[in-house]
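retry 2 of 3: previous attempt timed out while embedding FE2/S2 (inorganic) cluster. Reduced batch size to 1 and resubmitted. Inputs unchanged:
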Amino acid sequence: MTQIFYLPDQQLIETEDANTLLTAALEAGIPHTHVCGGNARCSTCRVLILDGHEFCAPRTPEEQILADQLGFEPCVRLACQTMIAREGKITLRRLSLDADDMAMFFDQVSKKAAPSLLGQEKHVAILFADIRGFTAFSEALLPYDVIYVLNRYFQRMAEVINRYGGTINVYMGDGFMALFGVENPDRAAERAIRAGMGMLAALEELNPSLEGLYQQRLRIGIGVHYGWTVIGTIGDPKNPKMTAIGDAVNLASRIEAANKSLGTTFLISKEAYAEAKDHVLVGQSFQVKIPGKSGEYSLYEVKDVPPSKSGEEFGVVTKTQAKHHWFRPIQRLVRALKYWLKRLVGK
Ligand code: FES
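retry 2 succeeded.
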């Protein structure tokens, strides 16, 4: 006999090993939704396996098709298709609890809504950026120009973020949050820091045209932290947005804000620095109190990164890079020469 602990029902049941999870629930009187009658077509019977996945049989081909379509994590299973493989104890949570859940799952299956990413804990690098003094900057401009400047700025920043395998997940007025390591955890902190330096370089390229048009330059502050977050999709089911939530996100935002009081441009946390130590040159370090948190935090000012190896090294090549493939080795050589010259002169 296998034991299944059902949530949110808080009910422990015992069942024969040959049963599916759905059959076991229905036999025990648990109101487990199964709109298509167990034919792997509606997904309303989906469950989240919290413990004991090893006692469940692999996906049937029918379940696999729906799981691929909806982007299910391995721990999300269709109860109507999941056989109990061997004796053990399984803990799971039914995911369709009311009419709203059912409607959302139907919309996903019929492709009227994008599949939502259930919360997953992930170690990621979080980058926050904010334009300094943008309110004063924008007060001198027409509304059209404000939007024009912001769009030019966000476009350039997104190019850099994407080049290093990150994604901008949230825009907040003239600021944004980007995540690195959601899909590919490899060197996430290093990529975020390289992206931060790339953003500053891109801004230097953008500023002359803004000066020409508006006699003003943009300045930004950047903060990077590396830590555990919960990643998931939220918002309107027809247009869900992936985001990160958790203490690490709040801390990254506070680190970016600390640039103002410390008079710096680019700060990273101790955790981000520890991850990318061999690839980043830091200047001053600070012990700061972070609003809303106890104790002091070590922050490091980023001064430089060794010659940027292109996004290709991180498995990321933008369309523009691909077009100018021949040009890249020369760019790298020039960057390397500039870097070493700067270091020699600095010494
Ligand atoms: S009951 Fe419809 S997919 Fe399981």
